[in-house]
Design a protein that fits this description.
- The protein is α/β, with parallel strands linked by helices and 247 residues long.
- The protein has one domain: NAD(P)-binding Rossmann-like Domain (Rossmann fold, 3-Layer(aba) Sandwich).
- It is built from eight helices and seven strands, in the order βαβαβααβαβαβααβ.
- The protein has a seven-stranded parallel sheet, with helices on both faces.
């Protein structure tokens, strides 16, 4: 990780999808860097396990907010709830996501497509909408959105993933373009590559998970994008590679 463990002391960070995988690893790493973490996911038990890890590593607890991001009305209250309780939000790391169905486009059912769009770009937009006022008031606001290479390079049977990730990326870049000149808020896309997660196992059950990058290995790169100080803006960052500006 870049910098010392005190780099995020006093800052408040929200991590979605924090009950497992990259979300859990990022939450632990952010807490180790000094941030107070607000953790959200559908699974209360998974959030409690992440909180246990944070307490083991730091001696402090996180704030747990069980939430299904597909519940738009509840998602809309997230920003105001954080404002009421903490008065600030400095970082958001959006790790929550669904694989959806891997299928030829012509075989896909409308309900499968609609759920994918709701879980992907619609959730991203609503998350931005509810959190932007807080992040834009932070003296060094940071937002990191996990993305997928299929949004840049579609592949057979991955059409739903490609469409939802490409749409999410476009929404994030539009938000960047709308920031006032001189805004201290930095927003980036992060593509972690082939990581040993539950979603990867679902997508590729024959793949040897032991050969893949563990979530804990990519977490420090995510933390580095949340640090105060000079940061890129609107860069597509892929783990293990130099950042690529795909504006």
């Amino acid at each position: 990780m870049t910098g010392s463990l005190a780099d995020l002391t006093g800052r408040v960070a929200l991590v979605t999808g924090a009950s497992r995988g990259i979300g859990r690893a990022a939450a632990v790493a952010l807490a180790q860097a000094g941030a107070h973490c607000i953790l959200t996911a559908r699974a209360q038990g998974g959030l409690e396990q992440t909180d246990d890890l944070i307490r083991q590593h730091t001696g402090h607890n996180a704030t747990l907010l069980p939430l299904d991001l597909l519940d738009g009305e509840k998602l809309d209250t997230l920003g105001p709830s954080i404002a009421t309780r903490f008065g600030r939000l400095d970082c958001v790391v959006h790790c929550a996501g669904e694989l959806g169905i891997l299928s030829p486009l012509s075989h896909m059912q409308p309900k499968e497509w609609e759920r994918g769009m709701q879980a992907g770009p619609l959730t991203t937009w609503r998350l931005i909408r509810t959190l932007a006022p807080l992040l834009e008031r932070s003296p060094a606001g940071r937002a990191v959105f996990l993305t997928d290479q299929h949004g840049q390079t579609p592949a057979p049977f991955w059409g739903l993933v490609a469409a939802t990730r490409a749409a999410q990326d476009a929404i994030v870049r539009t938000w960047i373009s709308e920031l006032p000149q001189g805004s201290p808020l930095r927003i980036n896309l992060f593509e972690p590559g082939m990581v040993a997660t539950r979603l990867r196992r679902l997508a590729m059950p024959a793949l040897d998970m032991d050969s893949l990058t563990p979530p804990e290995a990519v977490a420090p790169r995510i933390v580095s994008l949340c640090l105060p100080g000079p940061q890129p803006q609107g860069i597509y960052v892929r783990f293990g590679m130099e950042p690529v500006d795909k504006k």
